[in-house]
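Field reference: "sequence" (input) and "structure" (output). Example, RING-type E3 ubiquitin transferase:
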Amino acid sequence: MGNIGSSGSNSRRRHGGGGSGRRIHPPPPHPPVIPPPEVTANRFAYPPAATPYHNYPGYYPPPTTLPAPLPAPYDHHHRPSVDPMWGRYPAAPAPTPTPYVEHQKAVTIKNDVNIKKETLRIEPDEENPDRFLVTFTFDATVSGSITILFFAKEGEGCILTPMKENDLPSMTVNFQQGLGQRFKQPAGTGIDFSMFEESELLNVGDDDIYPVAIKADASSGDPDESKSNETSSYGNTNSQITQAVFEKEKGEFQVKVVKQILWVNEMRYELQEIYGIGNSVESDLDGNDPGKECVICLSEPRDTTVLPCRHMCMCSGCAKVLRFQTNRCPICRQPVERLLEIKVGPETEE
């Protein structure tokens, strides 16, 4: 019985019963739950600035604001890597400036005598079967003389010196004014190939000695006087020099032109072939270079040559714009060093 009474009194004290018992208060309410900050699409989301950070040595709180990431440029072929720190795409490299190409105008030089190099041949000497004679076609607006030299070396002032004069002496023939003239070396003055090694005939020798050289001198005076001057010095005020080597095809020797030089008013000019200059003034077209219009605008006539490839393919207007945009030839894509404007026609002659 005592145990029951005792438990009853304890029960009353726990529920607040009885005057002498201690009152038990209910537990305090829980603090309100603060939801975490919402994470947006921006990968750099930080707590509000009012939230306290732990303050202990070596801890540095992150910045409260950062610049928004820039939109990535769309590229069909390449996607640049993302910077792991800032989340931005790296800046595109600055474009490389196009090299400046010089634009020049050609100066007209009058050539009184012109040997057509594509007509240069050698023919057997009918009177001397072991010798061969040099033949070609040439144009001359004045009278003058032609000199044939074998194994000749060019010196200062375009003076040609035969290096084997004892074996093959040079010879000179006078000519009169006229176009389309045919020249043939006199009989008995040709070359005998059996007297020399093939290596001497097929290549340019040391010190630029050419197996065959042809010098055409123009003179407005007496042809006999021109001949006497030519015999003594091989030089004159207006000359054209054609230097060539021999080549062997199917067991027979042929002539191959290597270089042509103009000597005008004590100035030396080396002639270069220009591709397309014929179509700029003629109506006949060939399959390799159709049309005579500029390859860029397709309307203006061609008058500008690309050097060093020597393609005459543009008008001067397009060439002036092109030199600031690219340094490649529109035809062969080779690097351009210079642009040369050439006005072809009778009005350019001086």
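Helices lie at 2-14, 198-202, 223-233, 316-322.
Residues 1-19, 41-56, 225-236, 282-289 have pLDDT under 50 and may be disordered.
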